[in-house]
Amino acid sequence: MTLSANLNIMKKAARKAGRSLVKDFREVENLQVSMKGAGDFVSRADVAAEEIIKAELMEARPSYGWIGEEGGAEEGKDPTRRWIVDPLDGTTNFLHGLPHWAISIALEHKGQVVAGVIYDAAKDEMFFAEKGEGAWMNESRIRVSGRQKMIESVFATGLPFGGRSDLPATLQDLARLMPACAGVRRWGSAALDLAYVAAGRYEGFWERRLNAWDIAAGIIILREAGGLVEALTPGDDILSSGEIIGANEVIFDQFAGIIRAS
């Protein structure tokens, strides 16, 4: 497995930020937490992790643009490339002491995601991919599930919280999907949901109202693992719409047909 210089830079940044987050995770009860919005929290650990990642990436590639969950967007001297970063996807899990959260780093080139890293530091599982090179978890190549029947398949999604307007649509999705499948999981990290579909742990994933940094790395990891990924509305751009559906190739059409029936 030969990695590009950019992917090595991304993995190094993720590991460095991961060490910082794991240290804070062990002291989660002592974290100073401020409200960022209804049902949405940000900790000093989150901000510190983004600063670590940004310092690593921008030192190595100072001409690239940047967009991060905490620090906003910056245009680079090279307008064709930018980093898309979520320093802590699964913040609520993190703050409740639940070891299911991840760092997500993607590289976009001319509007297309060409490399991605999702690092689950609590479990030391690093999912990564770059265009045309397949998808990996640590030292092992990963592929989407080979299951072909909906009734044997497990799916993941996010459940809207805090009175969000997309709750009725999601409840309708569940009402149509759950009788047709083996189960639905809501684990609180869209990045890891996509990585798990890529690794064959879930058969599919869908969600609305996500941000580019939640899903950018997961899109390329899932595609390089042999999965299909689209916007919920066919033809829309996934990153700008924030609505996504992905699955293995065999069940994608049936799964998408159920979700898109609303």
Word description of this protein:
With 262 residues, the protein is of the alpha+beta class. The chain has two domains: 5-142, 2-Layer Sandwich (Fructose-1,6-Bisphosphatase, Chain A, domain 1), CATH 3.30.540.10; 150-259, D-Maltodextrin-Binding Protein, domain 2 (3-Layer(aba) Sandwich), CATH 3.40.190. It is 35% helix and 28% strand. It contains eight helices and 15 strands. The chain has helices spanning 5-26, 44-60, 91-95, 167-177, 190-198, 212-224, 238-241, 249-259, and strands spanning 33-37, 40-43, 65-68, 72-74, 81-89, 102-109, 112-120, 125-130, 135-137, 140-142, 154-157, 183-185, 204-207, 227-230, 244-248. α1 runs antiparallel to α2 (44-60) and α5 (190-198) packs parallel to α6. It is globular. The termini are far apart. The mean pLDDT is 93. Belongs to the inositol monophosphatase superfamily.
